[in-house]
Design brief:
The chain is built from 14 helices and 10 strands. With 356 residues, the chain is an alpha+beta fold. Strand 6 and strand 7 form a beta hairpin.
């Protein structure tokens, strides 16, 4: 006995995929042509994601007509159950086409869910919370601290189970570790707003608050192969930012690579700020030294020349949306040696976080 289901994504989109409840689980029909089950991939990934979230154990079997008389054990498809759903899908396609000349056929599948009733399966697969898009004013309550905490949770092995692995973009940390942007932002929403976050709460993409805040927090968004390329910087805006600012030759190279660094350099050169930071640092520690590599320039180069080796770096480049007239605090600054300073600026020019 079977019962057809209508799959709806967390964003409210209806998928073109024929899915049926079966006495022992779920049947996903094959895709063929341009119209039949054209959302097959999205449907299978959604099914796996929701079964994972519902903590339902399952096995997947090839169920095409030619093999339906073969024992289930002989047509089970192997895949890594701990990998992201996108990777699982690719593994399943390779497994279902093994031994044939076809590499792109997406075949009928039987997803066995032993011990789970049809009523429970329907609740997990079809039912979803009513999601309303959060206004930008709410999303902007997310701070860099919220985003950093989300990053640390994911790097520590945590997860955001309501969000699938990213298929279009990566959010790179300072050491180049790729994270799913929506997972990071979803966890940040939960901490900032105290709600359970879902994909329908926000949009991710260029020009959206999600990407804006992630990059201001120091992450660097890069498109995967099928992702949309980063929009080109507004030349007029960059030019306007450079009024009364004379960058060095090396800084010009950095700016060409990543125009966002202009704001960083302008804040570092704020009148009197570097001297104020150095004076406060000496008052606290009794001497100047590099906060990154611990170089003591006076010890190495003597008291007269040594202090020139320590520069002031604005280590919270894109901390949050600063209102006009915002004054940088000394806590936003670090005392570091010239070598470390050049490395951090190079990271910023490459789009790598200097703090994550």
């Amino acid at each position: 006995m079977s019962d057809q289901l209508i799959l709806v994504t967390d964003d409210g989109a209806h998928l073109n995929a024929k899915v049926e409840l079966h006495d022992l689980g779920i049947i996903l029909h094959s895709r063929s042509g341009t119209d039949r089950n054209r959302d097959y991939r999205a449907a299978l990934e959604l099914l796996m994601s929701r079964l994972d979230h519902g903590q339902v154990a399952y096995r997947i079997y090839l169920d095409s007509r030619p093999v339906q008389r073969v024992d289930l054990a002989e047509r089970e498809l192997a895949f890594d159950r701990l990998s992201p759903v996108g990777s699982r899908f690719d593994e399943l396609v390779r497994a279902m086409n093994a031994g044939s000349s076809s590499h792109g056929a997406w075949r009928r599948l039987f997803i066995e869910t032993p011990g789970t009733s049809q009523i429970r399966l329907r609740e997990i697969i079809v039912s979803k919370p009513t999601i309303s898009r959060l206004p930008a004013s709410e999303l902007r309550k997310i701070t860099t601290t919220h985003i950093h905490n989300a990053v640390q949770k994911l790097l520590g092995g945590g997860d955001a189970p309501n969000f699938a692995a990213s298929r279009d973009y990566d959010a790179l940390t300072g050491n180049g570790t790729p994270l799913a942007p929506k997972k990071v932002f979803g966890l940040a929403i939960e901490e900032a707003l105290g709600i359970e976050a879902f994909p329908g709460h926000f949009s991710a993409g260029w020009g959206q608050v999600c990407f804006e805040l992630l990059e201001e927090a120091g992450l660097w968004i890069v498109p995967k192969k099928e992702g949309v390329s980063r929009p080109k910087p507004d030349a007029d805006l960059v030019k306007a930012q450079l009024v009364d600012f004379v960058p060095t030759q090396e800084e010009r190279v950095w700016i060409e690579g990543n125009p966002r660094i202009v704001t960083h350099l302008l804040r570092e050169r704020a009148s009197g700020l570097a001297k104020e930071k150095r004076d406060a640092f000496i008052a606290e520690h009794g001497r100047l030294f590099c906060e990154d590599c611990t170089l003591d320039p006076v010890e190495r180069y003597g008291p007269e020349a040594g202090s020139a080796c320590i520069e002031v770096h604005h280590h919270r480049t894109h901390v949050e949306n600063m209102a006009p007239g915002h004054k940088t605090s000394l806590d936003d600054l670090k005392c570091i040696c010239a070598n470390c300073h050049r490395v951090l600026h190079r990271k910023l020019a490459l789009g790598l976080s200097a703090s994550l």
